[in-house]
Amino acid sequence: MKFLVTQELGILSKWLRILGYDTVYVREENVYSIIMESFKEDRIIITKNKRFLQHPGVNVVVLNSNDYRNQLREVIKRLKIPLDSHKMFSRCVICNLELEVVHKKEQVKHKVPQYVYDTHNVFYICRRCQRIYWEGSHWGNVKDTLDKILI
């Protein structure tokens, strides 16, 4: 399942990436361009823009809430999105690229805080933006947030 999320849902796009889903975030306002991109890449459009409903055959989820937690809950339930802990944190939240394991810890020594370097052994990198990821407290925070959302 791949998504195309429109400009008013930036936080939701990051959450879908955190869950491990290929999620393109578009700032484009032209409905027709967005629809064409969704067809070309076989993506489900997620938006708050009701104009998409005027186009039959478009795979679109139109959300009403302004709160990302409600948006995420609705998307998960409406699309029956499976939550797989092995897929979580497998994509860059900025670029959407799949993360790669850093095989030599020394490669990130000067790219992460010293405490993080000293206390973690496994790191991931986005090859596009060079952002470094590790299993920090945010992993637990995300799981707590998901537990609250899905009640």
Enumerate how many helices there are, as a single number. Answer: 5
Class based on secondary structure composition and strand pairing: alpha/beta
> DSSP strand (E) fraction?
15-25%
CATH architecture of the largest domain: 3-Layer(aba) Sandwich
What would you give as the CATH superfamily of the largest domain? Answer: Cobalamin-binding domain
Could you list the spans in which at least 5 consecutive residues all have pLDDT below 50?
none
Label the overall shape: elongated
Walk me through the structure.
The structure is a single chain. The protein is built from five helices and seven strands, in the order βαβαββαβαββα. With 151 residues, it is an alpha/beta fold. The strands form two sheets. Strands 2-1-3-4 form a four-stranded parallel beta sheet, with helices on both faces. The model has no long low-confidence stretch (mean pLDDT 92).
Attribute tags:
single chain, Rossmann fold, 5 helices, alpha/beta, 2 domains, 151 residues
Walk me through the topology.
Layout: E1 3-6, H1 10-18, E2 23-26, H2 31-41, E3 44-47, E4 60-62, H3 68-79, E5 100-101, H4 114-119, E6 123-125, E7 132-134, H5 137-149
Parallel strand pairs: 1-2, 1-3, 3-4
Antiparallel strand pairs: 5-6, 6-7
Helix pairs in contact: 1-3
Write a compact overview of the structure shown.
The protein has 151 residues and is α/β, with parallel strands linked by helices. The chain contains five helices and seven strands; from the N terminus they run βαβαββαβαββα.
